[in-house]
ABC transporter ATP-binding protein
Amino acid sequence: MTIQPVVQVTGLQQGYGQKIVLSDIDLTLKRGQILALIGPSGAGKTTLIRTIMGMMRPRAGQVLVFNQAVPDRLLLARIGFMAQTDALYESLTGAENLTFFAKMQGVGHEEMTKQLTYAANVVNLQSALDQPVKNYSGGMKRRLSLAIALISKPPLLILDEPTIGIDPELRRKIWEELHRLAHDQGTAIILTTHVMADAEEADILMMIRNGTAIAQGTPTQLKADYQTNSIEAVFLAAGRQQDAH
Ligand SMILES: Nc1ncnc2c1ncn2[C@@H]1O[C@H](COP(=O)(O)OP(=O)(O)O)[C@@H](O)[C@H]1O
Ligand SMILES: [Mg+2]
């Protein structure tokens, strides 16, 4: 029996109106892998995430999630999603937001307290759970959005810029939890970042620049291929190659 990838993108082209934003994107994400989409602002990372989530129909090519073509509403129950822009109920408390989204993701009454405690713990929000979200700082809202993505322990996590506005100590803790989820529980994780340090934590990288993948592979492979010891140098070298073409 062959093991199906969790996410399979083939020959994807995507855009808005006349504008082409992504071309020739191919990627495979397996169970237990962490994939980081890395690239500067405007590269097309969020557009790719939205397409994998089924929020935009592929203009060309194919996107399969758990072997189903997207969009597929039923898939959403199996995906923990953190959007780049927080979508929270400002007048509700952190705990109420978590409970609301947990119910939507099918978390049962018996597990609710345990899951809520777990998710709030990962992002250090325990002490703020009873406050309305309108009193939260920007960083606290990001953390709550991440907790919401984690709350139902989904087999696929899709996180758009999860480390923005997170202090280094908490960032470390979040990475440890993402590693544990992927490597111990088999969770598949896609995240976007423009922070090179995040790239080092991922199992596979896809570097995106001007809507195309300029380099793809494990951090070790990429550094060897480009004969350098930093991911940032790989990105710059791959970018120069793209410009030369
Ligand atoms: N709703 C939209 N309508 C038109 N263009 C958009 C829209 N959203 C993003 N874009 C454009 O698509 C490109 C890629 O954007 P995006 O996917 O948000 O990049 P990233 O997440 O890497 O910063 C940019 O040029 C951006 O201006
Ligand atoms: Mg983005």
User: Anything to note?
Assistant: The longest helix spans residues 168-185.
